[in-house]
Design goal:
5-stranded mixed beta sheet, binds copper (II) ion, alpha+beta
């Protein structure tokens, strides 16, 4: 009996404000939307889109199609027309996690930079063995996550390009520069984009 009297008293002492439920936070659509979960933890707000291990010479890259609405959604990680992209040291293994945030099918494959810029159909054979999602020019994914890996054996200017016919030529591509004498991998965001994000 004593206990219940005490708990009633305690209840009465709780300030009224804390008893009122907080209004549900307004849900804003995050860039990356449903694909956010593929990014490393803690990198959603300021995504770096890669994780690297220099000792192992390995980089994990996270490529999200239609990350935001730029270039009519034909972007990877919010970047299009190869205005930004990845720089990776020659000889490193590249592990790709690809996710399409759109209902429109997209894919990703590695081709030479000039091919990505001018070819309407990039075909289904990537420049480096294994550097593509399955059947990139006919079979896009929507929300499915695809993983693949490859080790570039040549330095040069390449692109991560969408294999869907016309997409890459219309800007659905980011650069992939494989460089000798580079110590760390990086995702380069164009200056223009940095201003948009502010
Ligand atoms: Cu595309």
């Amino acid at each position: 009996m004593k206990t219940s009297t005490l708990s009633l008293l305690t209840l009465a002492l709780i300030p009224l404000s804390s008893a009122i439920a907080e209004p549900e936070a307004k849900k804003e659509e995050k860039p990356g939307g449903r694909c956010c979960t593929v990014l490393p933890k803690g990198e959603i707000k300021n995504p770096v889109f890669l994780k690297q291990d220099a000792a192992k010479k390995e980089v994990e890259v996270f490529i999200i199609a239609t990350f935001d609405k730029s270039n009519y959604g034909m972007n990877f990680n919010g970047v299009s027309k190869s205005e930004g992209g990845y720089e990776i040291p020659l000889g490193w293994k590249v592990k790709v996690t690809f996710c399409n945030n759109s209902d429109v099918p997209h894919s990703v494959m590695v081709v030479e930079a000039d091919v990505a810029e001018r070819k309407i159909n990039l075909g289904d054979t990537p420049y480096f063995d294994g550097a593509t999602t399955p059947k990139p020019n006919t079979l896009g994914t929507t929300s499915k996550i695809e993983k693949f890996e490859f080790t570039p054996d040549e330095a040069g200017d390449f692109s991560f390009a969408c294999g869907f016919p016309t997409h890459s030529a219309n800007g659905h591509r980011i650069f992939l520069k494989i460089k000798k004498d580079l110590e760390k991998a990086a995702f380069i965001v164009p200056e223009k984009k940095k201003e948009d994000v502010k």
